[in-house]
């Protein structure tokens, strides 16, 4: 019988057992959400620090290349090594607490908050890790569901989940199911998910925008902000005075908290976003959170950005009146059962939320890059930002390239001490995991005025857009990269074919395959493939990189378009 070794994980305090299998396989068999990607020792996703214990490298055949990812003396790759004794491994920055996917919760109470708004309270059977502003899905059977924001902070409320639900004429849940629920009845929930969550720890002013029961998603953010010494202003829009169903709490809180004030906005008189922008907030420093109907979200984003709000500081979630999320188009076609496998938690809603949060994270990181900063310092900053924004871990390492290193691919070595110059070009490539869903977003930023750098970024986005447009016409993955190469050459640039696109899904997609988009002989489906474009100058050490998930033309992206998220300049 093979001896089994106990592998302790720090700082998580969890452990798993490993015999002769690879450490990565043993962790996955123990249902621990360890990041990994290539399984070849090339990407570094599964790198850990060895605190104690003995291990050995896996055997390789003569034609198998050795792992190429550079490691320190006290580091190993889980995909390349076996345990020879009990071990202690350090996994800095990783959360091994997988979000609950599905729970059954009993109803604790149900009461009317107004004529047409019901408060439903359920009790989670075990503690849930809920970030302020997230929501859950109520599973209704036959594959249908409804999404409702969690209107409280469960960790401070004995694990209770509170929902504010508006009665909608003909609503499947609000008229068909909610009236029949009694105390003790079970409801099936999935989550928590959502990207409209608390994003910062500084003391800058906070502006909250809500319409209708969008207030349910805003209230946990308000409660979080109240615990910090910041200026807070809430604008809440409704059709009637009865729509301001939490006015008593807000009035009491504003009287007790001088730095908090709130405004009722009746829709017959004005719009929430108009009233907010009429006030003299320090928009360049403010954090704005918005939750409500899609028209308000869209107009508020445009107005706030025009007023000086930084893109990554505008955080929003759009709803329709039924309580469901904004409609999202189905994939362009049924997923290929062999090449496009996904996991049990996969959903378009979850993937779009992960994409939006990744777009926002990239903008936040780019805004903090400073002249004189080394690549190593930038990578540390990026990891800290991702953790602060709620990423549980990364499914591939964060890649940042300055100057001459922008022509190199992620798996090629770079100079970690290279410093960002006043006139420079920088690539940021993120692969975070949000609530069990993989994000993948990267872009290029120009510092100062340099015609060649700006031309490179302009060509990059044009090549990406033209390639994505070609996908809409029904081309295969291989044909898409042929289009990209022709487009790049026509603009005077070279396409780096070694960056060839890849799969993405609920974490970890690497369980389902390692296929490259550029080698795909079928038309790629929506929301399961990432299109990567890297351009290089034919003779100069100048490169640029952009990537995003392939999203159908009728889908509703949750984040700003890539041109908005990265204007090509960084302060």
From TrEMBL:
Transmembrane segments: none annotated. Keywords: Iron, Iron-sulfur, Metal-binding. Its cofactor is [2Fe-2S] cluster. Residues 100-199 form the FAD-binding FR-type domain. It comes from the Bacteria. One of its GO terms (molecular function) is 2 iron, 2 sulfur cluster binding. InterPro entries: 2Fe-2S_ferredoxin-like_sf, 2Fe-2S_ferredoxin-type, 2Fe2S_fd_BS, Beta-grasp_dom_sf, Cbr1-like_FAD-bd_dom, Creatinase/aminopeptidase-like, FAD-bd_FR_type, FNR_nucleotide-bd. Residues 5-95 form the 2Fe-2S ferredoxin-type domain. This is NAD(P)H dependent flavin oxidoreductase family protein.
